[in-house]
Design a protein that fits this description.
The protein has 132 residues and is mainly alpha-helical. The protein has 5 helices and 2 strands; from the N terminus they run αααββαα. The protein has a domain of 42 residues. Keywords: Signal. This is ATP-binding protein.
């Protein structure tokens, strides 16, 4: 290949690579120095592990999970609810003689009207009793 046809390395890329190398070397040197100056770890006494209150720890974990999951019970279940393209909004019903009409809307209305888990007939009271 002729000398004039060889690709030339851009100077900015070379400087960039050199800068990254210097930065990595500096971080390694300074990081090792900082680790060498760290205070020695104080060992935990073994009997401090036996004094852990498991009931309080469990209650704290349950409270954290409940407050993290609790708002999820108010989210709308069907993202297409109250729109013209909601496939769950289609209902089927029938009436026999003089009896009251029966249809699928009795089951799906809670979801298709923009309801959340807390609004469902069976799951709603369960989630309200388990979560705040």
């Amino acid at each position: 290949m002729a000398r004039h046809a060889q690709p030339k390395a851009p100077r900015l890329a070379v400087l960039w690579k050199a800068g990254l190398g210097v930065t990595a070397a500096g971080a390694a040197v300074l990081g090792a120095g900082a680790a060498a100056q760290a205070a020695p770890a104080v060992p935990l006494p073994v009997d401090s592990l036996t004094r852990t209150d498991a009931a309080a720890a469990g209650e704290g974990a349950l409270t954290g999970v409940a407050h993290g999951v609790g708002p999820l019970t108010r989210l709308q279940l069907d993202p297409l609810a109250n729109t013209g393209v909601d496939p769950l909004a289609n209902g089927l019903g029938t009436q026999v003689s003089d009896f009251k009409p029966v249809g699928t809307n009795l089951v799906t209305d809670h979801v298709t009207k923009g309801g959340a888990v807390a609004d469902l007939p069976v799951a709603g009271p369960l989630t309200q009793s388990l979560l705040p």
